[in-house]
Structure formats: structure tokens, C-alpha cells
Write a structure and sequence with these properties.
The protein is mainly α. It is built from 16 helices and 2 strands. Strand 1 and strand 2 form a beta hairpin. Helix 6 packs parallel to helix 7, helix 11 packs parallel to helix 14 and helix 13 crosses helix 14. The relative contact order is 0.10.
């Protein structure tokens, strides 16, 4: 579900193979925990409170939100969104490819976009695709919604329900990071034609800002962009999108928490406040742990790939590693040229990225704390 491939999905797979890929994308997008719950419900088995609590960790379920109600909402909302996106895309692609192929392509791309998978049936992804900017914006809207997290969408769609601080952080944070990254892309590529001309530049800059948050599509040739833009993309890949979403990365909320903690330190405060709330130290510790774990994994992966692929340019190797760990699927052309052992490493990295350092850290953090308290101490920093 990352989009890093060594074969052309549209040319090298039969319609049956493409259908299997689409089903795998949809299953992965709804999440292993939610999918497991659906299987239990389908067999008529009872989901215990302990199971609900465990599943709630990966889905970031807030207190008062029913897991089973959320599961029903996820299924309905996912199906409805995919149907609407595919219907809109069909309006552009049926006249271009015919009824059968147009509907098939539209449905595949709707599933891939909503689930932030990045698989495309065109050899150059969305670069020069029929429908132009409209199709690009439709894809962007689909994977932005998929990356918000089901809890956010659930609260937005729930009548008479006040948005939680998590949902507000995700909405404001998403708008903010997309705006900042888009402007930065336009700045870095101001003397280059990589983004196109006129209105196309805004579309291309926004799309690359959004897709690097784990969507994996591209509407331009990434190799024509500057290294500054590549570095910005990698930062976006590490940050990712929302908890409980179809995306990866350390999660946007984790990044915002770390920024809030940094500002508190710079202001000399002993507590961290955000949106009128004081944040627990536990949240900051987990956010710090998630970042450290992710950077440690990324360091090891980059070192191994640089050792395995000495003939590749350094930034190309690092870009590939970040893309794999963030489950993004973008590449600067290295994927198909790697040695077999590098490909195995990338497969393992993608699996680790899908399991997510967030879930691994949450599992460790939920171990019962020993009642013994040690004496306090101070360590000099800086």
C-alpha cells in the first residue's frame, strides 16, 4: 500500500491482478484493526471490551466514541467516497478510454487515492493524464480526506457534536502545512519550469505538497525539481498525515505536539499549552519517543541502502528510504534499479512503516508502570 513498484501496474498486470491490488489497497486503508473487527462481526462473534480498547490504540478513538459505530461509519464513508470520486473521474475518462476501461480506471484510482496508496494505471502516474488539472485536484481532495483520519471525519459528520482538540488540530494543521509547503515549493522552483507555467504551477506545487504526505502520486517529473524541493518533500513524508487515517509518517499531531513543546521551552514555561489546553507530559514523552524511534530507524535504513547501492546518488537513496518508511511511494527512479537484497530491505521497511512506529510505541507505552518511584534528580542540558 505504498506505491513503490518495480513493475508498471497498468501495463504488466492483468485486469484480475489490478483488481486484487485494488482490494488490497482498500483493506489496508481501513486498517488492520478495523478490518479485524469487521471479520469478527461478520462471524457474529462478540468483541470484548479489552479488544475494543486494544483496537482503539491504532484508531485513536476518543472517549465516548463507540468502536462499532466507528466501524460502520468507516465502511459506509469509505465506500461512498470511493464511489463519488470514481463517478467524477469517469466523467473525464469514459470519453477518453471508453465505458469499460474508463470506469475501471476511475474506480482503481479512486481506491488508490482515498487510501493514500499511490498506485496508478498510467506509466507516468498523473503527469499528462486526461482531464488535466481537474483530475489532479480530484485526486488531491481524495487523499487529503483519506489522510485526515476517520475520527476527524466522523466528528465533522456527526450532528451537534463539538469537535475535539484532536480534530481541530488536524484540520488547522493540515491547512497550515499544505499552505506553507505549497508556497515553499513555488519559491524553490521559481527559476525552473518543473512546475509548468501559469496556473499549472500552483496546481503542481499544491499537489506535490499534498501527495508527499503519503499519497504517492505525482503530476510532474520529480527529477526535474531542485534538491531543496526534494528535501522539503522528505520532511513532509516524515511528518505524514493524521492518526487513524490511510496515511503513514509520525503523524501531523505528533509534529504539532513537538512544536508546542519546543515553544514552551523557548518561552521558559514548565507546561505546554495548546488551543487553551494544558498538555500532559505523557503526550510529549510519546511524541518525542515516536520521533526518536522514527529517526533511528531511518538512519539505519539509509546507512544500509547507501552501503548496498554505492553507485546511486546520495539524495536519491535517502529519498527512497524516507518514502518507503513513510509509506509514500514516490521515487526518483531508484526502485527498479536496486539489487535484490536492497529490494528485500525496502519491502521490510514498507511493512514497518505500515505497522507504524506510532503503534509500536503505543504498545510499549501501555505496559503497566511499576509502583516504585525513584528519587528525583537534575541533569545539566545545553
Amino acid at each position: 500500500m505504498t506505491g513503490l513498484v518495480t513493475l508498471d501496474t497498468g501495463q504488466d498486470y492483468t485486469p484480475v491482478g489490478q483488481t486484487i491490488i485494488a482490494l488490497l489497497m482498500q483493506t489496508g486503508g481501513m486498517g488492520y484493526m478495523l478490518t479485524g473487527t469487521l471479520l469478527l462481526l461478520g462471524k457474529g462473534r462478540f468483541v470484548s471490551l479489552k479488544q475494543q480498547s486494544t483496537m482503539g490504540i491504532s484508531s485513536q478513538i476518543n472517549e465516548g466514541t463507540s468502536l462499532l459505530a466507528l466501524v460502520r461509519f468507516v465502511v459506509i464513508f469509505s465506500g461512498l467516497t470511493v464511489f463519488l470520486v470514481s463517478a467524477i473521474l469517469s466523467a473525464f475518462w469514459i470519453p477518453e478510454f471508453g465505458v469499460t476501461k474508463g470506469i475501471g480506471y476511475s474506480l482503481f484510482h479512486a481506491i488508490s487515492a482515498f487510501n493514500n496508496a499511490g498506485f496508478a494505471l498510467f506509466s507516468d502516474s498523473l503527469d499528462g493524464v486526461a482531464g488535466g488539472s481537474w483530475v489532479v485536484w480530484i485526486h488531491a481532495l481524495a487523499f487529503i480526506i483519506g489522510g485526515m483520519g476517520f475520527i476527524v471525519v466522523y466528528e465533522v459528520c456527526s450532528p451537534n457534536k463539538r469537535l475535539s482538540i484532536h480534530s481541530r488540530l488536524m484540520i488547522y494543521g493540515t491547512i497550515g502545512i499544505l499552505a506553507i509547503t505549497t508556497l515553499a515549493m513555488l519559491l524553490f522552483e521559481q527559476h525552473s519550469s518543473s512546475l509548468g507555467e501559469g496556473y499549472e504551477r500552483i496546481t503542481a506545487a499544491f499537489f506535490q505538497a499534498a501527495t508527499t504526505r503519503t499519497a504517492g502520486f505525482n503530476s510532474i517529473d520529480l527529477n526535474e525539481m531542485s534538491h531543496a524541493s526534494h528535501a522539503l518533500m522528505m520532511i513532509n513524508m516524515v511528518i505524514g498525515a493524521g492518526p487513524g487515517s490511510t496515511a503513514g509518517g509520525i503523524r501531523l499531531t505528533t509534529f504539532i505536539l513537538l512544536l508546542a513543546g519546543l515553544f514552551a521551552v523557548l518561552q521558559g514555561r514548565d507546561s505546554t499549552r495548546l488551543m487553551g489546553r494544558t498538555l500532559d507530559v505523557e503526550h510529549l514523552l510519546r511524541a518525542s519517543g515516536i520521533l526518536i524511534l522514527t529517526l533511528a530507524l531511518l538512519t539505519v535504513i539509509c546507512l544500509l541502502l547507501l552501503y548496498f547501492e554505492p553507485e546511486q546518488e546520495t539524495i536519491v537513496v535517502i529519498f527512497e528510504a524516507v518514502s518507503a518508511l513513510g509509506t509514500v511511494g514516490l521515487s526518483l527512479g531508484m526502485t527498479g534499479d536496486m539489487h535484490w537484497y536492497s529490494k528485500i530491505l525496502i519491502i521490510l521497511v514498507m511493512l514497518i512503516g505500515k505497522i507504524s512506529p506510532v503503534i509500536l510505541f503505543s504498545a510499549l507505552a501501555n505496559r503497566p508502570e511499576k509502583p516504585v518511584k525513584f528519587a528525583g534528580g537534575k541533569i545539566a542540558l545545553g
